[in-house]
Amino acid sequence: MTRTPVNVTVTGAAGQIGYALLFRIASGQLLGADVPVNLRLLEITPALKAAEGTAMELDDCAFPLLQNIEISDDPNVAFDGANVALLVGARPRTKGMERGDLLSANGGIFKPQGKAINDNAADDIKVLVVGNPANTNALIAQAAAPDVPADRFTAMTRLDHNRALTQLAKKTGTTVADIKRLTIWGNHSATQYPDIFQASVAGKPAIEAIGGDEKWLSDDFIPTVAKRGAAIIEARGASSAASAANAAIDHVHTWVNGTAEGDWTSMGIPSDGSYGVPEGLISSFPVTTKDGKYEIVQGLDINEFSRARIDASVKELEEERAAVRELGLI
Ligand code: NAD
Ligand code: LMR
């Protein structure tokens, strides 16, 4: 193997997303079939043994690309030299917990992790936050890493994007490969806005492909996509894991390897003020990627239907930002 291994840090490695994610990273699906990887697993102390068990299984797969696995409960160790960081471990909302309590508990995780990334990661670090509330956790980590370019902190809305692709394909009797330029705007929460007004289905405008059925859009498609996480929890008795891991793989793979010509993807990224989203908020946008960098797709016409929904999700992000400011987390 001649290429230098890429150091990939995964937090919450012993959790259910971690279990669905690590084997795919080690097999080359995150970065490419010719890119060797070192895995660094971060867990809390009581879960280190479980992480060791997962590492034993990774060894037992004899993945040719997997060079080395290190496990730690110290963020300074786990992020040392990290090129890619997948921040999956988070404090889940439990019964009776207010949003402020949740944000505060997650601040206790993402603030020190952001600082450890700042102090130890490689210069080319790319961060994806999966742990919820993902957009605001990304903001907290970013604020604690002033020496890292702000645009390296991203939040995952690719699962929402993938969910929207499948719902639209089902409605139009096509396949996901026929759909281009779909967008998730805003927060990874029930306020998110899956937008098909710019999308095409098998080469024709998506809105035509659904027969102009705005009722289906507002009463079926949007709530189905936006509330899918809750529907999975209801059905499975646990939150999405394999599909979330798959989306994390897709997010980083696209960031590193680029979007296809004529298409784009959705990523939660720091706003530069585009489309009226206040600067600095980590919000989902349509983006193209090339050479390891992303750009917001510019110049899209936003109709009234979309504007109201983007604004509602952005308002929620602003409220979350105000709450974590109030808590002194950013
Ligand atoms: P899980 O409870 O199975 O695993 C979480 C793991 O994180 C646990 O092993 C826990 O020990 C670990 N952890 C907790 N605090 C940590 C810390 N400070 N450092 C390192 N590890 C720590 O949860 P899961 O199902 O794997 O989900 C993880 C997160 O991803 C949740 O917040 C979930 O809501 C979120 N999620 C996000 C999306 C998305 O689309 N953005 C989708 C699905 C799930
Ligand atoms: C999902 O979208 O599946 C998750 O974010 C849901 C959750 O609350 O963990």
Brief overview:
By secondary structure, this protein is an alpha/beta fold. It has helices spanning 16-26, 48-61, 75-78, 99-120, 134-143, 158-172, 206-209, 214-226, 228-236, 242-257, 304-326; strands spanning 6-11, 37-42, 66-72, 84-87, 126-129, 153-155, 179-180, 183-185, 193-195, 200-201, 204-205, 265-270, 282-290, 293-296.
Describe the protein.
The protein has helices at residues 16-26, 48-61, 75-78, 99-120, 134-143, 158-172, 206-209, 214-226, 228-236, 242-257, 304-326, and strands spanning 6-11, 37-42, 66-72, 84-87, 126-129, 153-155, 179-180, 183-185, 193-195, 200-201, 204-205, 265-270, 282-290, 293-296. Helix 1 crosses helix 10 and helix 4 (99-120) packs across helix 5. The protein has 330 residues and is α/β, with parallel strands linked by helices. It folds into two domains: 6-155, NAD(P)-binding Rossmann-like Domain (Rossmann fold, 3-Layer(aba) Sandwich); 157-323, L-2-Hydroxyisocaproate Dehydrogenase, Chain A, domain 2 (Alpha-Beta Complex), CATH 3.90.110.10. The protein is built from eleven helices and 14 strands. The mean pLDDT is 96. It starts with 5 loop residues before the first strand and ends with a helix. The protein has a six-stranded parallel beta sheet. Strand 13 and strand 14 (293-296) form a beta hairpin. The structure holds nicotinamide-adenine-dinucleotide (NAD) and (2S)-2-hydroxybutanedioic acid (LMR). (2S)-2-hydroxybutanedioic acid binds next to helix 9.
β-sheet strand percentage:
15-25%
- Assigned CATH architecture of the largest domain: Alpha-Beta Complex
What do the pLDDT scores average to?
96
Strand order of the largest sheet: 3-2-1-4-5-6
CATH topology annotation of the largest domain: L-2-Hydroxyisocaproate Dehydrogenase, Chain A, domain 2
The named CATH superfamily of the largest domain? Lactate dehydrogenase/glycoside hydrolase, family 4, C-terminal
Into which percent range does the helicity of residues fall?
40-55%
- What overall geometry do the principal axes of the alpha carbons give? globular
CATH classification class of the largest domain: Alpha Beta
* Class by SSE composition: alpha/beta
Q: Which segments are poorly predicted (pLDDT under 50) over 5 or more consecutive residues?
A: none
EC number: 1.1.1.37
Protein name: Malate dehydrogenase
GO molecular function, one term: L-malate dehydrogenase (NAD+) activity
GO biological process, one term: malate metabolic process
